[in-house]
Design a protein that fits this description.
Elements: E1 5-10, H1 19-36, E2 40-43, H2 57-67, E3 72-75, H3 85-98, E4 103-108, H4 114-119, H5 124-142, E5 147-148, E6 152-153, E7 167-170, H6 174-183, E8 186-189, H7 195-209, E9 216-225, H8 228-249, H9 263-269, E10 271-274, H10 275-287, E11 293-298, H11 303-321
Helix pairs in contact: 1-11, 2-3, 3-5, 6-7, 10-11
Length: 324
């Protein structure tokens, strides 16, 4: 089995509370990741968050299309429940054209962010319903549908470069997994999702797809160095801060599905350790869990350290992955 694709998930880390500076630094890192040879570069929609100031994710993805040439780019994730579906179709088509057919549309309901949903008058159930309703309209337009609910005639312009635009979904409810399996969409999992949760979602997907396994993109926190001790020295302060934030925000209340509040689990379930340890763990996620791609999140908000982790995955980890 081929090693999973190497991806990078951008969060626009903002340790100095200067959003403009954080966004500029993020795109310097995007250029570096492209130059290093990352297969995929992802960016997520994150609202009302001073530490990850990515509320205008579509605009940022447009800029990402402009500063990359080879890496596939995508949303990890976009929240269709919060978007007008016609406008989202136009934006996705434009992103796909600007990137010359390199765009991946990753979506989720927003269930992990109840306070964001509440601002839009949504709860979990209604957010899932609206996600699927809006996504159906968006994908129909992208595929060339000439009518919308209510018999409104409409033909999308511009048209996307890809047909179809690849769709990925982060979910674990049966309805969403059944729809994903029936349509052949890829699955995504957050960096704090337990692997048991991921495996359960994959099994449900396979039931709906007639036994076909999904393309699976895992996000995972990452820190690698010559020794495990060096990698932990970088990762542990980041995880201490992250777990404190998760507790305050209510992320990961259910330990069976998320380890966001558990520092030891964050270390154990992430890509943390010596180069050899991390390469072995990277392979394991492909061989045993079916990951076709892994999007790393460097465990440092400091620019130079963040960049160094990105470089180590290309210079140290990837050659070990290619040995087989």
């Amino acid at each position: 089995m081929a090693a999973p694709r190497l991806g990078y998930l951008c969060l626009s880390e903002n340790p100095t509370a200067e959003a403009g500076r954080a966004l500029i630094r993020q795109f310097v890192l995007v250029r570096e990741a492209e130059r290093m040879g990352y297969d995929d570069i992802w960016l997520g929609e994150q609202h009302f968050d001073s530490q990850w100031p990515q509320g205008a994710a579509i605009a940022m993805l447009g800029y990402m299309a402009a500063v990359t040439n080879k890496s596939r780019i995508g949303s990890m994730v976009c929240l269709p429940a919060l978007h007008d579906p016609i406008r989202l179709a136009e934006e996705v088509a434009t992103l796909d054209l600007l990137s010359k057919g390199r765009f991946n549309l990753g979506v989720a309901s927003g269930a992990a962010f109840p306070s964001v949903l509440a601002v839009h008058g949504l709860q979990l159930a209604s957010a899932r319903e609206r996600m699927h309703a809006n996504l159906s309209v968006t994908l129909g337009l992208l595929a060339g549908a000439a009518s919308l609910p209510g018999d409104t005639a409409l033909k999308l312009e511009p048209r996307p470069a890809q047909s179809p635009v690849p769709v990925w979904i982060a979910c674990d409810d049966d309805t969403s997994l059944d729809i994903a399996g029936q349509n052949g969409w890829g699955l995504m999992a957050a960096a704090t999702h337990t692997l048991a949760r991921v495996q359960k979602a994959v099994e449900r997907y396979k039931q709906a797809s007639g036994g076909k396994a999904p393309a699976l993109m895992l996000a995972r926190f990452a820190s690698t160095a010559s020794t495990r001790e060096e990698a932990l020295a970088v990762a542990r302060p980041y995880f201490d801060s992250f777990a404190t934030r998760a507790l305050a925000e209510g992320w990961g209340r259910n330990r069976e599905t998320s380890f966001a509040q558990d520092v030891d689990a964050l270390i154990a379930e992430s890509l943390i350790g010596s180069h050899h340890e991390v390469a072995a763990r990277f392979k394991e996620m492909g061989e045993h869990y079916g990951a076709t791609g892994i999007a790393i999140i460097p465990t440092s908000a400091q620019f130079d350290t963040h960049k160094h982790i990105l470089a180590d995955f290309v210079d140290e980890i990837r050659p070990m992955l290619d040995e087989d």
